[in-house]
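Box 3.1 A note on notation
Throughout this textbook, protein chains are presented in two layers. The first layer is the amino acid sequence; the second is a token string describing backbone geometry. Keep the layers aligned when reading.
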Amino acid sequence: MPGARPHVVIIGGGFAGLNVARRLGGVPIDVTLIDRHNYHLFQPLLYQVAMAVLSPGDIATPIRAILSRERNVSVLFAEAQAIDVSNQVVLLDTGEVHYDYLVLASGASHAYFGHDEWEALAPGLKTLDDALEIRRRVLLAFERAEREADAVERRRLLTFAIVGGGPTGVELAGALSDIARQALVRDFRSIDPASARVVLLEGGPRVLPAFPLHLSDAAERSLRRLGVEVRTNALVTAIDECSVSVGDNRIDAGTILWAAGVQASPLARSLGVPLDRAGRVSVEPTLTVPGHPQLFVLGDLAIVEGPDGKPLPGLAAVAMQEGTHTARNIRRAVSGQALLPFRYRNLGNMATIGRSAAVADLGHVQLTGTVAWVAWLVVHLWKLIGFRNRLIVFLEWAWAYIASRSGVRLITNDAGIWHHDARMVVTPRPPRPGVQRDDDSGPSAAWEERRPEPEREKTATGRRG
């Protein structure tokens, strides 16, 4: 209708989409942000929710609260199912929305390379629900091992296999080893959590392949110091409920986690443009779809070439810069100006490896060890949205570091937990040397006398007593 303001529709409230909405706040444009979740998720810290270090509310903020001051921005809690490019309409689960400019930033999900049946057996880590499910499985593995009398089955339950040696896999492996050896070590009586086996499987020749070689080597050394078994050139060929296979080598594992690949949102298929194998769109330098200057694609959904001609990585910093640039280009388009090409400013790449260890590639400066870990802490605290989130996360980290404990070790969604054929253990393990159990009333010799003879001999030679 004559005189109507341009309508910008943003699909996705992640780093890219949220940055577009915030940058268009106060501009004489109507903006609608659509997301199937009502919160913005700080994904770089998602693994810490999965490893019971942080609570979901520490890394998620309601989208409406973030945009409450932007009076020209509306938030729609809905799921976009397809895009009618010719009519400039977004089809929702209920109804539709017309747009003058569309920003597609709906992110990516897990990719199992043609083995979708593995998803139920090896969950990935992309959403809060994923993180809570991983937390449930990890903590439940220790609980079931505590009840299990058979040594072989107990060993399987305490074996954790992580598929994929990128940042997510490395961070999961380091954090999992940390909680087993630090946070849980005093909590159980019949098992030794520190005996947990963490196996990291990477199909390529090295972990963190996007990092310089010497940083990858430093990360692998840090993982090994934490007790993680790092296996490179290990392509997974099969996964079942009890094991993961690499060629003819089968690894019995009670918990298998997936961190090996991503697949772009299926929304891109409705655009009618060529996609790569991961379902991503190759965009123009202006971040628009070829032939559609009113349609922008950002984040994990877009293939954007960097200065070296290689596609930019799926980092939060990339998505945020793309969002800022897209908002600028939309303002220019509305005022009749030409769109500008996107230029990425490399702010570096980081990955943390357990307690007091990390690697950081900051361009001309590369850091490892404690210095890199402190830099990682500062950067991630600074990027968190909201003073409350920053303060709570800082306090949680301080408590976890000082006390070697984590406070959110809760098993939720307990459906099916008790359907497990475990033989109950009735005798606790002996205390560690120099450590008195809360309920100790005598020397550990009493435990030895109650313990069946074969198990006592195995304990003396096969694990920490």
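The two ends are 78 Å apart (CA to CA). The chain has two domains: 7-36+78-110+262-334, 116-258+355-403.
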